[in-house]
């Protein structure tokens, strides 16, 4: 089994995602942050942009668009808290 890390993405309205991933890339205030399993613990602010999530045994990445927020990395777990978050596949061009 691949080395993985748990990721939870939560908006003010609902839990958007809770699953295992191989790596995550998030738009931190000072630049993009790439997080692999066993990453050092940290907390940072996020700016508006897309969170890229590489799921286990999949060739493509899932996208979640956020309005900014907070990223917390703990051993074995990533938590992203954002006022607004939406999965890329759920975007509606007319609403955007």
The major sheet is characterized as: 9 strands, mixed
Number of helices: 0
Order of helices and strands: EEEEEEEEE
Low-pLDDT regions: none
**Helix and strand composition category:** mainly beta
How large, in whole angstroms, is the Cα Rg? 13 Å
Number of strands: 9
Overall helicity: under 10%
Overview of this structure, please?
With 96 residues, the protein is an all-beta fold. Helix content is 0%, strand content 61%. It has strands at residues 5-11, 15-28, 31-35, 42-46, 49-55, 61-66, 69-74, 77-82, 85-87. The termini are far apart.
Looking at this protein, list some descriptive labels:
96 residues; mainly beta; 9 strands; 0% helix; 61% strand; globular
Topology:
Elements: E1 5-11, E2 15-28, E3 31-35, E4 42-46, E5 49-55, E6 61-66, E7 69-74, E8 77-82, E9 85-87
Parallel strand pairs: 1-8
Antiparallel strand pairs: 1-2, 2-3, 2-5, 4-7, 5-6, 6-9, 7-8
Question: What's this, in brief?
Answer:
The protein has strands at residues 5-11, 15-28, 31-35, 42-46, 49-55, 61-66, 69-74, 77-82, 85-87. It has 96 residues and is mostly beta strands. The radius of gyration is 13 Å and the shape is globular.
């Amino acid at each position: 089994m691949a080395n993985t890390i748990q990721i939870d993405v939560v908006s003010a309205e609902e839990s958007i995602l809770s699953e295992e991933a191989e790596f995550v890339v998030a738009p931190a205030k000072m630049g993009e942050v790439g997080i692999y399993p066993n990453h050092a613990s940290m907390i940072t602010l996020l700016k508006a942009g897309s969170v890229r999530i590489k799921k286990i045994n999949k060739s493509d990445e899932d996208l979640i668009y956020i309005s900014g927020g907070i990223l917390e990395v703990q051993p074995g777990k990533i938590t992203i808290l954002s006022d607004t978050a939406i999965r890329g596949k759920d975007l509606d061009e007319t609403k955007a």
